[in-house]
Amino acid sequence: MENVIKQAGFNRKAYFDYTVEEKFECGVVLRGTEVKSIKDGKFSFSDSWAEIKDGEVWLKSFVISENPFSSVFNHEPGRAKKLLLRKQEIKRLTRKVEMKGYTLTPLSFYFKNGKFKVELGVCKGKKQFDKRSAIRERDLNIEAAREIRNRRPSRH
């Protein structure tokens, strides 16, 4: 069977604000109307994060807008969503997060074989000078690519 992956969202800010140490693929427990809203692209994850509580991993501040075509059975937009991981993975995440400066941040959201998945990263916060050096490096790469593009002889 072939893995069909459809990207739903990508957290660029997480890669800028954090250094990603390790990544985990998690399933998400959703209600019926939440799936429809996600497929329509009506969700926000800019400030979302994950928390380990009582041996379970919960996704916080992941807002899924209500479905306008559902009336009585609609969901609460800001509720915490449970993430599905193996017990060994949760223990490993717990040890990592207990270390100073580490946090669990969602990196990307996608559908894999019809199931909604989250790529969760164990991240360490970057200092301000790290962010500045990342910006400087990115600008240098853009400038180098521009120089290479301009050096090519034109074909007439």
Task: Describe the fold and architecture.
The protein is of the alpha+beta class. The protein has one domain (5-125): Small Protein B, Chain: A (Beta Barrel), CATH 2.40.280. Helices cover 32% and strands 37% of the residues. It has helices at residues 12-17, 32-39, 87-98, 128-151, and strands at residues 5-10, 18-28, 43-44, 49-53, 56-60, 63-64, 81-84, 102-112, 115-125. Strands 1-8-9-2-7-5-4 form a seven-stranded antiparallel β-sheet. Strands 3-6 form a two-stranded antiparallel sheet. It is globular and about 65 Å long. The model has no long low-confidence stretch (mean pLDDT 82).
Percent in helix: 25-40%
Mean pLDDT: 82
Q: Radius of gyration over alpha carbons?
A: 19 Å
Q: Reading side by side through the largest sheet, how are the strands ordered?
A: 1-8-9-2-7-5-4
- Please tell me the total number of domains: 1
Strand fraction:
35-45%
Low-pLDDT stretches: none
Describe what is shown at a glance.
With 156 residues, the protein is of the alpha+beta class. Helices cover 32% and strands 37% of the residues.
Write the layout of secondary structure elements.
Blueprint: E1 5-10, H1 12-17, E2 18-28, H2 32-39, E3 43-44, E4 49-53, E5 56-60, E6 63-64, E7 81-84, H3 87-98, E8 102-112, E9 115-125, H4 128-151
Antiparallel strand pairs: 1-8, 2-7, 2-9, 3-6, 4-5, 5-7, 8-9
Keywords:
Small Protein B, Chain: A; alpha+beta; about 160 residues; single chain; two-stranded antiparallel ribbon
